C-alpha cells in the first residue's frame, strides 16, 4: 500500500516536473533573437520580402506567441512533438532516427567509464600511496582536466592519421555496403574513438570518486570486524567494501547521464557521429524551436527516469534504504 | 586492410616509380568508368532542392541531381544544357528557348516545356529568394510545343541570361509539384531531377548517397557509379578525412585556411580555386550611415584609408583573396569599373581627414568609439574584425569586436540596425543586378531581410540606376549605368569592399575532371572520374 502511494506520488511529480521544464524551455528559447525564417534566409544568401513572408507562414511564425504556446502545450498533452518545418519531417521521426546512435555512444562510453573507473578506483585504493596508486591518480587527474574536444582531436591524429588503425569519423563505412556481422564490426571500429573520448573524463571522475569511497569504507568498524572474523581479502572487497563504496558513484552516474548530452555535442561534432547532441546543437543555431523543444523534452524525461532508476538502485545496493 | 593496401602501393611506387606503372599513363588520358566518389558536405543541407533554398550546401548536392537550362563557362558565357539554343528579340522583350528533346525525369516522365513554365510561374517568380527581381518582368510564358518556351516580358531583363543554370533557375517536375504546397512538398527532400545522378538515400546527420542515372541524356556520362556526400561538422576532422583519403572532394573552403597550404603540399591532394566565377564572392563591411559620426562620408573615407586590404588578403585570409576596389568584382569583367575612387592604405591621411571632419582626439587619445560585428561563418571573419580593430586603433578610433550567432547577427544588422560596422560577404553572381545592387537599394532598409541594404544608405540617384538597369535592353547602356553606380557608391562609401574572396576546393589527386565550369561548385559531377591507379588509399 505504501509502495502504491509512493509510485503515485512519484508519477505526479514527474508529470509536473516535465511540464514545468517544457513551459520554461518554450519561453526561454523564444528569448533568442532572430527566428528560423531569418536563419534560413541567412543561409540562402539572398532573401526578398515575399520569400520571408512565405517562410514565416510556413513555420507558423506569423502567429502571436500565445497561440504558438497554446499549440505547443496542446501538442505535448496529446504526446505530439510537432513538426520541424526546417527539416520537413515530424520531430519524433527526427529524434528516433538519431536516438540509436546516441544511445549506443552513451551506453558504451558510460559502461566503459563506470566499469573502468570503478575497477581502477578499487585498485588505487588497495595500493594507496604506492606506485600503482600514484600512476592511476595522476593519469586520472590529467584526463579530468583535459578538454574533451582536444582529447578527441589528438586521438584522431594519432590513431587515424598517423597509425591509420581507426576511421576518422562517421558511424560506418558507407562505401563498403557491409551487412550483418561485418556491419556490426565496422560500426564498432567507428565507435572506439568517440566512446573513449567521451568516456575518459567520466572514467577519471569515477576513478577518483571510487578510490576515495573505498578508502573511507575500509576504515569503518564493520570492515575491521569482518577482518577479525577471518573473511578473506577478496570476499571482503566483493561483499563488504565495493557495494558500500558504490553508492556515491551511482549518485554521480545518475547526475552525469543527464549531463552527458552536453558532452555528446562536442564528441559527436568532432567524430561526425550522427547523434542527438549534434541535432540539438544545430537546431539551436537554426532556431528550429519545435525540434529543439522536442529534444529537450525527451532528454528531460530521460533525466527524470534515470533519477527514478538511481533511487531504485540504492535500495538494491543497500537494503537499509527504503523507497519513500 | 587499408593499411596493407597503402603500404603495398608505396612500396611499389618506391621500387618502380608510380608514373612508370603501366596503365597509369593510359588511364590519365581517357576517363575511367565506375567508382564511388566520397565528397564532404558541410554544413548539412536543409533540403536538396535549390529551387526553394539557395543555401550553398543545397546547391552543391542539388547540382548533380538537376540540370539547368544552361551551364556557365569560366568567362560566364552560357553553355547549352537542357536548352539547346535560345534567342532574344531585338527589343529584349521576348526570349525563346529550344529545349533538348528526349530528356527524362528520374521517375521516367518526359521533361517538357510545361515543367519550365510551371516552375517559372510558381517558384522563380513567387518564392525564389533571388529570382523575383530577375524573372519579375516575365508577363506570359508560352509553350507552343513540348520543346519550346517563349517568355514575354513587360520590360527587357538581361539579367535572366545570367541566372539560368541549375542553381539560379532550377526546374522542378511539374507532375510532382503542381497543386501541392511547394515549400512542404516531400520531394524537396528526395528530389526527382533530370541530372546525371539519381537521389538514393539521405541518412540525416550522416551522409547523402546519389547513384548514376543510367538514362542520362549526355550519353556515356556520368563516369562515376556513386557519389556519397558525408557530413563532417568538425574542421580538423575534415582535414584528416581528406588527408587519409576517406574523402576525395570538398568544396567551399572546407578546411581552415592555414590547413589549406599544408594539404596543398601533399602529393595525394590538390587545392584549387576555380569553379567559383559565377558566385564571385566579395567581402566587405557596412558602415551604419545613420549613426552620428558615421553619417559623415568624410569620416567613412578616413576609416577606409586606415584599412590595409593587402594585409587582410595576405595575413588574415592567407592569400585566399585579392584586395577589392569596387563592389562589382573584377571577375565580372564587363561590369567592373577600375577607375572608381580608391582609398589606399595611408594612416596619416586617415588621421588628417578625421581631424578635418572635426573628430579630434580626446584626452584619452580616442576620437570615436564603435562596435564591429562580424558574420559568424568561421575564424577568418573574426580575424578580419580583429584586424580592423587594430587598424582603427592606429588612427585613434577605439573599436570593440562583438560576437553572436547568425540569427542574432542578421537581426541586428538588417532588422534592428543596432550596429556601427558589420562585416559580411555577398555573392555578386554573373550580373551585378543579382548580387551587388541589393546592398545599396533603399527599398529594403530595416525590414529584417538578410543580405540586403545593411548600411541604411539611401540615395535616390542610386535607386534610380538600380531600377533602370533592370529594364534596359541595351547591354552597353546597362554597363555604363553600372559604372556610374560604382563611381557614386565608392565616393559616398556606405560600404567598404575589402576582398574579392577566393573559395577553394580540396580534391584528391586521383580525382580527374576537365577544366571547371564557372559555376562548377553548384554544377554537376557528370565529367568527374576517379583514376584508381593513383588513388592514395
TrEMBL record, chain A:
Keywords for this protein: Cell membrane, Membrane, Transmembrane, Transmembrane helix, Transport
One of the GO biological process terms: transmembrane transport
Pfam (any one): BPD_transp_1
Membrane-protein topology: Multi-pass membrane protein
Subcellular localization: Cell membrane
One cellular component (GO) term of this entry: plasma membrane
Membrane-spanning intervals of the chain: 12-32, 99-123, 135-163, 191-210, 245-271, 291-314
PROSITE patterns per record: ABC_TM1
Domain ABC transmembrane type-1: residue ranges: 99-314
Cross-referenced CDD domains: TM_PBP2
SUPFAM superfamilies the UniProt entry points to: MetI-like (SSF161098)
Protein family (similarity comment): Belongs to the binding-protein-dependent transport system permease family.
PANTHER family: ABC TRANSPORTER PERMEASE PROTEIN, DIPEPTIDE TRANSPORT SYSTEM PERMEASE PROTEIN DPPB-RELATED
UniProt-recorded name of the protein: Peptide/nickel transport system permease protein
Native source organism of the sequence: Arboricoccus pini
Lineage of origin: Bacteria, Pseudomonadati, Pseudomonadota, Alphaproteobacteria, Geminicoccales
Automatic annotation (TrEMBL), chain B:
Cellular localization per UniProt: Periplasm
PROSITE patterns: TAT (PS51318)
Highest taxon, organism lineage: Bacteria
CDD domains: PBP2_NikA_DppA_OppA_like_13
A cellular-component GO term for this protein: outer membrane-bounded periplasmic space
Domain Solute-binding protein family: 77-444
Protein name stated in the entry: Peptide/nickel transport system substrate-binding protein
Organism: Arboricoccus pini
Higher taxonomy: Bacteria, Pseudomonadati, Pseudomonadota, Alphaproteobacteria, Geminicoccales
Amino acid at each position: 500500500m505504501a509502495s502504491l502511494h509512493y509510485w503515485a506520488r512519484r508519477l505526479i511529480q514527474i508529470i509536473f516536473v516535465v511540464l514545468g521544464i517544457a513551459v520554461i524551455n518554450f519561453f526561454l528559447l523564444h528569448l533568442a533573437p532572430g527566428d528560423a525564417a531569418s536563419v534560413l534566409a541567412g543561409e540562402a544568401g539572398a532573401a526578398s520580402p515575399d520569400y520571408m513572408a512565405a517562410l514565416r507562414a510556413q513555420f507558423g511564425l506569423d502567429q502571436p506567441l500565445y497561440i504558438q504556446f497554446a499549440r505547443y502545450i496542446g501538442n505535448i498533452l496529446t504526446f505530439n512533438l510537432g513538426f520541424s518545418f526546417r527539416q520537413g519531417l515530424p520531430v519524433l521521426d527526427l529524434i528516433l532516427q538519431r536516438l540509436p546512435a546516441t544511445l549506443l555512444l552513451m551506453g558504451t562510453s558510460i559502461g566503459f567509464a563506470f566499469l573502468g573507473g570503478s575497477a581502477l578506483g578499487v585498485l588505487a585504493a588497495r595500493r594507496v600511496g604506492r606506485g600503482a596508486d600514484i600512476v592511476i591518480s595522476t593519469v586520472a587527474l590529467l584526463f579530468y582536466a583535459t578538454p574533451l574536444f582536444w582529447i578527441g582531436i589528438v586521438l584522431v591524429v594519432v590513431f587515424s592519421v598517423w597509425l591509420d588503425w581507426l576511421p576518422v569519423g562517421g558511424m560506418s563505412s558507407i562505401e563498403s555496403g557491409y551487412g550483418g556481422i561485418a556491419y556490426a564490426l565496422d560500426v564498432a571500429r567507428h565507435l572506439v574513438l568517440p566512446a573513449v573520448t567521451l568516456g575518459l573524463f567520466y572514467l577519471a571522475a569515477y576513478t577518483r570518486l571510487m578510490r576515495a569511497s573505498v578508502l573511507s569504507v575500509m576504515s569503518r568498524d564493520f570492515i575491521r570486524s569482518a577482518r577479525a572474523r577471518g573473511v578473506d581479502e577478496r570476499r571482503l572487497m566483493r561483499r563488504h567494501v565495493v557495494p558500500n563504496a558504490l553508492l556515491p558513484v551511482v549518485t554521480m552516474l545518475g547526475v552525469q547521464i543527464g549531463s552527458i548530452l552536453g558532452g555528446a555535442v562536442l564528441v559527436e561534432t568532432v567524430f561526425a557521429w550522427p547523434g542527438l547532441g549534434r541535432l540539438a546543437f544545430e537546431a539551436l543555431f537554426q532556431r528550429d524551436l519545435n525540434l529543439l523543444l522536442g529534444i529537450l523534452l525527451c532528454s528531460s524525461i530521460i533525466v527524470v527516469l534515470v533519477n527514478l532508476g538511481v533511487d531504485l538502485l540504492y535500495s538494491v545496493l543497500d537494503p537499509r534504504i527504503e523507497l519513500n | 586492410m587499408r593499411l596493407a593496401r597503402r603500404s603495398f602501393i608505396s612500396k611499389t611506387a618506391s621500387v618502380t616509380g608510380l608514373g612508370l606503372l603501366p596503365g597509369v599513363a593510359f588511364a590519365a588520358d581517357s576517363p575511367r568508368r565506375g567508382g564511388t566518389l566520397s565528397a564532404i558536405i558541410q554544413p548539412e543541407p536543409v533540403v536538396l532542392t535549390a529551387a526553394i533554398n539557395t543555401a550553398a550546401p543545397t546547391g552543391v548536392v542539388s547540382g548533380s541531381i538537376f540540370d539547368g537550362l544552361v551551364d556557365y563557362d569560366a568567362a560566364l558565357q552560357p553553355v547549352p544544357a537542357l536548352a539547346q539554343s535560345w534567342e532574344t528579340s531585338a527589343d529584349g522583350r521576348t526570349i525563346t528557348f529550344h529545349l533538348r528533346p528526349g530528356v527524362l525525369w528520374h521517375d521516367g516522365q518526359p521533361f517538357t516545356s510545361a515543367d519550365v513554365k510551371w516552375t517559372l510561374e510558381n517558384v522563380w517568380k513567387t518564392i525564389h529568394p533571388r529570382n523575383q527581381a530577375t524573372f519579375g518582368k516575365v508577363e506570359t510564358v508560352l509553350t507552343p510545343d513540348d520543346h519550346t518556351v517563349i517568355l514575354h516580358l513587360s520590360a527587357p531583363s538581361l539579367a535572366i541570361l545570367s541566372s539560368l543554370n541549375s542553381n539560379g533557375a532550377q526546374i522542378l517536375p511539374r507532375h510532382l509539384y503542381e497543386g501541392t504546397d511547394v515549400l512542404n512538398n516531400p520531394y524537396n527532400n528526395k528530389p526527382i531531377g533530370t541530372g546525371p545522378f539519381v537521389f538514393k538515400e539521405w541518412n540525416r546527420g550522416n551522409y547523402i548517397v546519389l547513384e548514376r542515372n543510367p538514362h542520362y541524356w549526355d550519353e556515356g556520362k556520368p563516369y562515376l557509379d556513386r557519389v556519397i556526400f558525408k557530413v563532417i561538422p568538425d574542421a580538423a576532422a575534415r582535414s584528416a578525412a581528406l588527408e587519409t583519403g576517406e574523402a576525395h572532394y570538398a568544396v567551399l573552403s572546407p578546411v581552415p585556411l592555414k590547413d589549406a597550404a599544408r594539404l596543398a603540399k601533399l602529393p595525394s591532394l590538390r587545392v584549387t580555386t576555380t569553379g567559383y566565377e559565377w558566385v564571385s564572392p566579395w567581402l566587405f563591411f557596412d558602415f551604419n550611415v545613420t549613426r552620428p559620426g558615421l553619417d559623415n562620408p568624410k569620416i567613412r573615407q578616413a576609416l577606409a584609408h586606415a584599412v590595409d586590404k593587402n594585409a587582410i588578403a595576405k595575413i588574415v585570409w592567407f592569400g585566399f583573396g585579392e584586395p577589392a576596389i569596387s563592389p562589382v568584382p573584377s571577375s565580372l569583367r564587363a561590369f567592373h569599373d577600375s577607375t572608381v575612387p580608391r582609398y589606399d592604405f595611408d594612416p596619416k591621411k586617415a588621421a588628417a581627414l578625421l581631424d578635418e571632419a572635426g573628430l579630434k582626439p580626446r584626452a584619452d587619445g580616442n576620437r570615436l568609439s564603435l562596435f564591429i560585428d562580424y558574420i559568424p561563418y568561421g575564424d577568418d571573419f573574426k580575424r578580419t574584425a580583429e584586424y580592423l580593430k587594430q587598424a582603427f586603433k592606429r588612427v585613434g578610433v577605439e573599436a570593440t569586436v562583438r560576437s553572436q550567432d547568425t540569427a542574432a547577427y542578421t537581426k541586428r544588422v538588417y532588422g534592428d540596425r543596432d550596429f556601427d560596422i558589420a562585416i559580411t560577404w555577398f555573392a555578386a553572381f554573373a550580373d551585378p543586378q543579382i548580387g551587388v545592387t541589393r546592398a545599396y537599394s533603399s527599398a529594403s532598409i530595416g525590414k529584417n531581410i538578410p543580405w540586403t541594404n545593411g548600411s541604411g544608405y539611401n540615395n535616390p540617384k542610386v535607386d534610380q540606376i538600380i531600377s533602370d538597369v533592370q529594364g534596359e535592353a541595351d547591354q552597353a547602356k546597362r554597363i555604363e549605368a553600372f559604372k556610374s553606380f560604382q563611381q557614386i557608391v565608392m565616393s559616398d562609401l556606405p560600404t567598404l569592399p575589402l576582398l574579392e574572396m577566393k573559395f577553394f576546393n580540396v580534391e584528391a589527386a586521383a580525382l580527374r575532371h576537365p577544366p571547371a565550369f564557372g559555376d562548377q561548385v553548384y554544377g554537376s559531377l557528370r565529367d568527374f572520374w576517379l583514376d584508381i591507379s593513383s588513388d592514395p588509399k
